[in-house]
Amino acid sequence: MKEYIPSELEPRWQEFWRQKQFYSTRKDPNRKKYYVLEMFPYPSGKLHMGHMRVYSIGDVLARFFRMRGCNVLHPMGWDAFGLPAENAAAQHGVDPAEWTAANIVAMKEQQDALGLSYDWEREVTTCAPDYYCWNQWLFLLFYREGLAYKRKAPVNWCPSCRTVLANEQVVDGGCWRCGSAVDSRELEQWFLRITDYADRLLDDLELLEGWPQRVKVMQENWIGRSEGTNIVFTVKETGDELKVFTTRPDTVFGVTYMVLAPEHPLVNKLIAGRPQEEEITKFVAQMRRESEITRTAADAEKVGLFTGASAVNPVNGEEIPILVGNYVLMSYGTGAIMGVPAHDQRDFLFARKYNLPVRMVVAPPDQCPSTDELTGAYEEPGIMVNSGLFDGMSSEEAKKAITDWLADRDRGGGDVMYRLRDWLISRQRYWGTPIPVVYCGSCGTVPVPEEELPVLLPEGIELSTLQQSPLAECPQFVHTSCPACGGEARRETDTMDTFFCSSWYYLRYADPRRESAPFLKEEVDYWLPVDQYIGGIEHAVLHLLYSRFFTKFLYDQGLVGIQEPFQRLLAQGMVYKDGAKMSKSKGNVVTPDEIIERYGADTGRLFILFASPPEKDLDWSDQGVEGCYRFLRRVWRLFGQNRELFEQSPGGAWSGNKEKAAVEGAGREEKELRRVLNATIKRVTADIEERYNFNTAISAIMELVNALYAYLGEAGPEQRDTHRVLLRQSLETVLLLLAPFAPHICEELWHQCGLQGSVHQQSWPAYDPAALEVEEVEIVIQVNGKVRGRVLVPADSSEVDLLEAARGHERVRPYLEGKEILKTVTVPRKLVNIVAR
RNA sequence: GCGAGAGUGGCGGAACGGCAGACGCGCUAGGUUCAGGACCUAGUGCCCGCAAGGGUGUGGGGGUUCAAAUCCCUUCUCUCGCACCA
C-alpha cells in the first residue's frame, strides 16, 4: 500500500485540473447558474489564515454545486490599487506596478496550492488599465447624472497616509487602515451622492433575507434615517433665519435657548462687535483644531458660551438666548439645535449647568408635576400643556399639528435627516484610478471624453519625497489641453478611493474581457446576482454599502437588471489562536504555507471547515489539525486495504444509481451499513446546501468511515465478497461526499480505484429513502419525564403495543408499582412517557 | 444608553420541544510495534458506588409543558455595532 504523501499528489492534481480546464465557465441558459464569490483580496503577497478560511468555504460551495449540476461561476481577482504598493515604492524604491504584479504571482501560487477551483480566465486586476478604464467610465456616468460633484468641505485627513478618508473609513477616530488619529481639513474634494440613495439603501435591506441580521443592522445604523421637523427661528438682532431640525416638534413651546455649532456660518455675524466676540472667537478656533471625534466623545464636558444674541421662537414669539456649544455638530442636521431642558435629558443637564430656565410642555398622562420638582427630563409622550392652542392634545398628535402649523406659516415643515454623508472618493495618492477630469481656464471643469479613456497613470514617478498628491508633481501628467476648447488645461491630480474599484468588480467577472463596455447586460443578467457572497464583517458598511449603491445606480441607468448584488451573504468569523487574533507581535501566527507543506492543503481545508461553523470565530488548534490529518490517512488506508473490491470487476464502476447494492441476501449488518450510507448522504447534502454547517457535514462523513471500518473489521472475506457492490458503493460515496472538502485525496483515490473520469465531475450522490427505513427502533421509556428504560420494538408498533412494552419493562415496573397512572404520552418510533403518582 | 448576537464536558463543538454532550481534540487503560508523536480496542460531564444502579447536569432565578439546552418572563456575563445625531 502506498503511503499518503500530500506534497506529492496535490500539485499533480492541481496541474491535471488546470490542463483539463475543469473550472472555466461558459454562459449556458439551459442550466441553473450558481455564482459563488469570495471578497477579492488586496495582493499583499502573503496569504494568511483568514484568506484560507474564506476561500475554503467558497470552494466547498463551488465544488458542491458543480456536482449538483449547476453552472458554477467561481472567479478570483485582485483589489490591486492602494497604499501598501505606494509605501513599498517610497521605502524600497520599487515600482508599485511591479511590486503589485509580483505579489499577485506569489499569492496566486499560494491560492493554487490550496486546490481552489477558480476560473482564472475571468481574473480581474483593478490596477490594470483595462479595468480602471471602466472606473473612469463609470465616474463620468455618475458625473453626467449629477451624482459626482466637487465641493469644498471639512474632510477627514489621515496624516500618516497623507490622504483624505470617507466617513465610513474612519473607525473610532482613526484611519481604518493604519489607525492613526484622523484630523479635519478643509479641502475641495470629489464626492458621490450616495445620500440620494439613502432611502432605497435602507428600505431594500428588507429584501436581503439571506444576509446576517447584524450586517443589516449596521447598515441601518450607518444610514441613520430620522424623521422630524425643521423649525425656522429668527435672530432678533439681525433678522437672520436660524433653522433647526428636531424629532420633537411637540416640545417647541418648551424651548428656552438655542445652541449653534462652532462652525455655524451665523456665529461670526452674531458676535460681531459684542463683548463676547473675543472669547467666542478663541473658543471656535480651539474647537476647529479638535477633531469631531474628541469633541463628541461620550465623556467630553458640554461647554456652551452665550453669544449675547437672541432668537425669536416662531410659535410663541418668545426671545431666547443663543449659545455656541462644543457638542453641536455642523455635519448633522442644520448645525443648530433648540434646547428643551424639560424633555431632553442632555438639555436638562446643560440647562442646570448654565442656569437656563426649564419649562414643562408635555405632561405625563396621569400626573402633573411642576417644573421645579423635576430631577430629570420627561422624554415620554404625554399631554400638551403651556403650548397655546395645542394644549390638551396628545404629544403624538401635536407633533403633526405643530409641523403643519409651521409649514402653513412658512416657518418650517416635515423633514428627514440621515447620518449617512456623501461618499468622498478623492485620494491624494498616486496608486489609484486617475479621476478623469480636466480643469480649463475658460471652460471650467471638463470631463474627459469617453473616447479618450483611459486616463493612464504616468509611469516612473518619484514617490519617495512626495509632499502632496504625487500626480500633482508630474508635469507631463498635469499639463494637457482642454477637451472642449483645446486650450491649455490641467488634469485633476487626485485618484479614486479603491473602494470605487471594488464596488462593481463582481459585475465585471460576468464579462471580464469586454473592451467596448464595462460588461454586457445580457452577461450580467445571466450570472448576477451573486448567489453566495463570502467575506469579513469588517466590510459591513464599507464595501457592502458602496456595492449596493453602485448596483442601484447601474440599475437606474439600465445597465443591470438587478437592484441588489448579493443574494446571500456569509460573514465568516475570524481565525484566532490561543484566544487572540493571529499576529506577528503575539507570535501566534500559523500560515497556510506551513500547513500545506506539513500536512497538505486537504488537511488544512478540512480542519478549518471542521473546527467551527463558518460564521463563528475559529480557534486554531495544532492538535485539531493533526486530527484531520489522521482522518485523511484513515480514509487513505480504508481504500488501500480494500483495493480488491475495485479490482474484481473491471470497468464496473458504480456511479449514481446505475448499480444498486443488492438488498436480497443482505443481513442485519449490511442493512445497517446501507442505512448509514444513505443517512450520511442525506445529512451531508442538507448540511452543505441548506445549513452551511460544514463542520457537521464532515463529522457525518467521519461517522460513515467509522461505520465502514467497523463493518470491515467484523466481516470475513466471504461476506465482503458477497456484498462487494454495497461496499464499493459505500467507499465511492465517501469520496464523492468528501470531494468538496478535500479535493486532492479524493481525486487520487478515485483514480487509484480505477474509476472513470474525475471525482469532481461526478453527480452528487442521491440517497434512497427506502434504505433509511428500519425494522426495529429503540424507544425510550420515561416515567414522569425521567428515562427509566429502553426497549427495541418493531418500527411500526402501535401506541397500544408501545405502552404495553413500556409497562412490562422490568426496569420500569418498579417505578409504577403502587402508583396510579394519570396519563401516558407516546411518540411513535421515539418514546413513551408514563405519568404516575 | 440603544440595537444585535452568544453563554452546553478539560477543549473545539453536536442536539425537528422527545435519550444532552454526535464528531474531533485531550486524557486513561490495554493491545500492536525494535521504538514512537504511527496504528488498533475499550473507557471518558460531574457526584455516590467494587458493580448493578442512583443522583445531578446546558450562566442564575421563575414560568409554560407529560417532556425545555431548545418556548416565555426576569436577571447576570461576554462579544459586536451605534451613540451628545438634536
Write the layout of secondary structure elements.
Layout: H1 6-20, E1 33-38, H2 49-67, E2 71-73, E3 77-78, H3 83-92, H4 96-113, E4 124-125, H5 129-144, E5 148-158, E6 163-165, E7 170-171, E8 174-175, E9 183-192, H6 198-203, H7 213-223, E10 226-235, E11 241-246, E12 257-260, H8 267-271, H9 277-289, H10 292-295, E13 304-312, E14 319-325, E15 336-339, H11 345-354, E16 362-363, E17 383-384, H12 395-408, E18 412-417, E19 423-424, E20 426-427, E21 437-440, E22 444-447, H13 475-478, E23 479-481, E24 488-491, E25 495-496, H14 498-502, H15 505-508, H16 521-527, E26 530-536, H17 543-556, E27 566-572, E28 575-577, E29 580-581, H18 592-599, H19 601-610, E30 618-620, H20 622-640, H21 643-647, H22 668-691, H23 694-714, H24 717-722, H25 724-738, H26 743-752, H27 769-772, E31 776-783, E32 786-794, H28 799-808, H29 813-816, E33 821-827, E34 831-836
Parallel strand pairs: 1-2, 1-26, 3-4, 12-14, 26-27, 28-30, 31-34
Antiparallel strand pairs: 5-6, 5-9, 7-8, 9-19, 10-11, 10-13, 10-18, 12-15, 13-14, 16-17, 20-25, 21-22, 21-24, 23-24, 28-29, 31-32, 33-34
The protein binds one RNA strand of 86 nucleotides through α7, β11, β15, α11 and α20.
